[in-house]
């Protein structure tokens, strides 16, 4: 018995020696590795700057722009087309990416190009030489009225967020000053938030699809009385317990006489669209809606999320099947179903805005959207996507 105990003690002592030796060697190795890192951590400022400039030049030269202009697009471009939608004369596409095709012709076009630069979600648009006009654009050009006559009260917010894959955010400003609506959310920017506040702030933040408002919490912190409106099927893990208004079922839902929310499942299970008819009344909370005027009575604006938009490459309305996260068949059905709604304009989160021919004529609208749904589904099949 005694011999067994002494043997156990010797074995335990040997293990302890081995363990502490291992710790010493490990510590020595880590310390040595740390000391080898010190020179790079204390690299001279000039060397750091030189390396930064080399990286910048590599990015600059990696994507061939069409002209040698002050503006250029680097290889971090994601090809989202934001710049082409804001300033189509200056920016074009080369393969799957955007390029600068020519210099802006005048100051107005230069401002538009700089708005595109500020808006770019990847920060891929750059200047070879600084221009003080950029600061003026940042200070005064956002939010930007889309068209005061055709689209009264609708503003483009800019500052697209790379976390949302460049979703286009909008702001509806209404006469009462308390019922403004943010459609999806840009990346948070303090200056932009102050400008929105000067327009009356935000009453509702409507999230049209999953992932379209990654900075919703920052915007809500700035506008604490705002209500985030999301369909239950698209409430992300990060949003749980934070959303003030969760939509249930198939809708439609209305905020008031001017704003109706419709279900558009497909791109994501809880995708929604927002129909706005500009005449502005006070908001009364979100309620179930069974009627929405008579077809053709008022020509409205559809904020379609990622369900539908104008594709410059295809030169037609499309649902961008390559980006869809859900069912193409359901998305096609949602596109076709929009033909029964009353609107003349489509303002998408993906793609370009589009004005329906005939000013929102019911027959024309139904035909165009039925065709768009059919072509969208066919393209998905040809591309080998799961429909």
Question: What is the CA–CA distance across the termini?
Answer: 75 Å
List low-pLDDT spans.
17-42, 280-285, 287-298
Query: Which strand order spans the largest sheet, edge to edge or round the barrel?
Result: 5-6-7-8-9-10-11
- The CATH topology name of the largest domain reads Metallo-beta-lactamase, Chain A
- Global structural class: alpha+beta
Q: Strand share of the residues?
A: 15-25%
Which superfamily, in CATH terms, is the homologous superfamily of the largest domain? Ribonuclease Z/Hydroxyacylglutathione hydrolase-like
The ordered H/E elements are HHEHEEHEHEEEEHEHEEEEEEEEEHEEH
Mean pLDDT: 82
Distinct helical segment count: 9
Strand segment count: 20
Biggest sheet, in brief? Answer: 7 strands, mixed
Total domain count: 2
Organism: Nannochloropsis gaditana
Domain 4Fe-4S ferredoxin-type: 69-97
Keywords: Signal
Signal peptide: 1-33
How would you describe what is shown here?
- This protein is α+β, with helices and mostly antiparallel strands and 387 residues long.
- It folds into 2 domains: 46-138, Alpha-Beta Plaits; 142-382, Ribonuclease Z/Hydroxyacylglutathione hydrolase-like (Metallo-beta-lactamase, Chain A).
- The chain contains 9 helices and 20 strands.
- It has helices spanning 2-41, 45-62, 82-86, 107-119, 133-140, 190-198, 216-222, 328-337, 362-382, and strands at residues 71-73, 91-94, 97-100, 125-127, 144-147, 151-156, 170-172, 181-183, 204-206, 227-231, 245-247, 253-256, 259-263, 272-276, 287-288, 301-305, 309-311, 316-318, 345-348, 354-355.
- The protein has a 7-stranded mixed beta sheet with strand order 5-6-7-8-9-10-11, with no helix packed on it.
- Helix 4 (107-119) crosses helix 5 (133-140) and helix 8 runs antiparallel to helix 9 (362-382).
- The termini are far apart.
- Keywords: Signal.
- Residues 1-33 form the signal peptide.
């Amino acid at each position: 018995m005694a011999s067994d105990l002494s043997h156990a003690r010797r074995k335990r002592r040997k293990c302890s020696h081995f363990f502490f030796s291992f710790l010493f060697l490990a510590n020595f190795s880590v310390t040595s590795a740390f000391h080898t890192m010190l020179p790079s951590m204390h690299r001279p400022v000039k060397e750091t700057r030189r390396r930064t400039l080399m990286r910048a030049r590599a990015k600059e030269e990696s994507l061939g722009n069409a002209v040698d202009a002050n503006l250029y697009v680097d290889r971090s471009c994601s090809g989202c087309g934001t710049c082409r939608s804001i300033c189509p004369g200056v920016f074009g596409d080369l393969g799957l990416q955007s390029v600068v095709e020519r210099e802006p012709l005048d100051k107005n076009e230069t401002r538009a190009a700089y708005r595109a630069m500020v808006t770019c979600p990847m920060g891929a648009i750059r200047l070879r030489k600084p221009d003080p006009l950029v600061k003026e654009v940042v200070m005064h050009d956002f939010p930007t009225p889309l068209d005061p006559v055709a689209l009264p009260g609708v503003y483009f917010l800019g500052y697209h967020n790379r976390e949302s894959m460049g979703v286009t955010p909008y702001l509806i400003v209404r006469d009462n000053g308390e019922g403004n609506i943010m459609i999806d959310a840009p990346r948070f920017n303090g200056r932009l938030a102050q400008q929105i506040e000067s327009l009356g702030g935000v009453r509702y933040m409507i999230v049209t699809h999953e992932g379209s408002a990654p900075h919703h919490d920052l915007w809500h912190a700035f506008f604490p009385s705002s209500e985030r409106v999301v369909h239950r099927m698209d409430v992300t893990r990060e949003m749980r317990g934070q959303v003030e208004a969760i939509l249930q079922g198939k809708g439609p839902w209305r905020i008031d006489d001017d704003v109706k929310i419709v279900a558009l499942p497909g791109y994501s299970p809880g995708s929604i669209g927002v129909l706005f008819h500009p005449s502005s009344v006070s908001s009364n909370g979100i309620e179930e809606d069974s009627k929405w005027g008579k077809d053709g009575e008022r020509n409205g604006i559809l904020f379609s999320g990622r369900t539908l938009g104008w594709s410059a490459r295809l030169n037609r309305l499309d649902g961008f099947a390559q980006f869809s996260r859900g069912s193409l068949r359901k998305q096609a059905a949602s596109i076709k179903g929009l033909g029964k709604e009353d609107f003349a304009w489509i303002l998408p989160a993906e793609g370009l805005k589009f004005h329906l021919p005939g000013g929102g004529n019911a027959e024309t609208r139904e035909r165009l959207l039925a065709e768009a749904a059919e072509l969208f589904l066919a393209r998905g099949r040809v591309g080998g996507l799961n429909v």
